[in-house]
Design goal:
heterodimer; A: mainly beta; seven-stranded mixed β-sheet; four-stranded antiparallel β-sheet; 11 strands; B: mainly beta; six-stranded mixed β-sheet; five-stranded antiparallel β-sheet
Chain lengths: 116, 112
């Protein structure tokens, strides 16, 4: 299957700082990428949908100024958590799909963010 | 929007027995239904999917059934093995590059 790489896998930061998470499709062109947040023992909550070259579409209740998403190329999307606070601590996962992949979303390995 | 319900939330099965997980969806326009397996701290991995033009699909010990009229679909795992222990998520979408709506997950434990 297609490969999606996500970095970093783990990040610890101080409250008030910003953190950038990268999601890359390694062997396909990702026309659409998705960003999820997952709380312990809970399901995946979609935060936003990102199409290459377009502004991201955010789900209801997700602050677009706090969670900045950029999808500037067909292989890279980034999520920046701005002015992070302890309540932003979570597991963030990206997924990607593209032409010829039959709707299948391939997931990154996730980023565990801890805000002190 | 789409709402996907999943049951049970936890399931313990003796090794070698079968496991069944059920999901219902609300959006009649949904036509793509994948199942993902997620081990602790790992990424979700697609194990099987089904589209609305078929009623059943099988891949070795795993099968999925879809009832479009009733808007429900089920995952069946036969001859369960310890490595089947994980959290399983169902999902639904309208296909294309549309977003997936996930169920709440089922923690499956295989008892040796």
């Amino acid at each position: 299957g297609a490969v999606v790489s996500q970095h970093p896998s783990r990040v610890i930061c101080k409250s008030g700082t910003s953190v950038k998470i990268e999601c890359r499709s390694l062997d396909f062109q990702a026309t659409t990428m998705f960003w999820y947040r997952q709380f312990p023992k809970k399901s995946l909550m979609l935060m936003a949908t990102s199409n290459e070259g377009s502004k991201a579409t955010y789900e209801q209740g997700v602050e677009k100024d706090k969670f900045l998403i950029n999808h500037a190329s067909l292989t890279l999307s980034t999520l920046t958590v701005t002015s992070a606070h302890p309540e932003d601590s979570s597991f963030y996962i990206c997924s990607a799909t593209g032409s010829g992949l039959g709707n299948i979303q391939y997931f990154g390995a996730g980023t565990r963010l801890s805000v002190l | 929007g789409e709402n996907v319900e999943q049951h049970p939330s936890t399931l313990s099965v003796q090794e070698g027995d079968s496991a069944v997980i059920k999901c219902t969806y609300s959006d009649s326009a949904s036509n793509y239904f994948p199942w993902y397996k997620q081990e602790l701290g790992k990424r979700p991995q697609l194990i099987i999917d089904i589209r609305s033009n078929v009623g059943e699909k099988k891949d070795q010990r795993i099968a999925v059934t879809l009832n479009k009229t009733a808007k429900h679909f089920s995952l069946h795992i036969t001859e369960t093995q310890p490595e089947d222990s994980a959290v399983y998520f169902c999902a639904a979408s309208r296909g294309g590059n549309e977003k997936l709506t996930f169920g709440t997950g089922t923690r499956l434990t295989i008892i040796p």
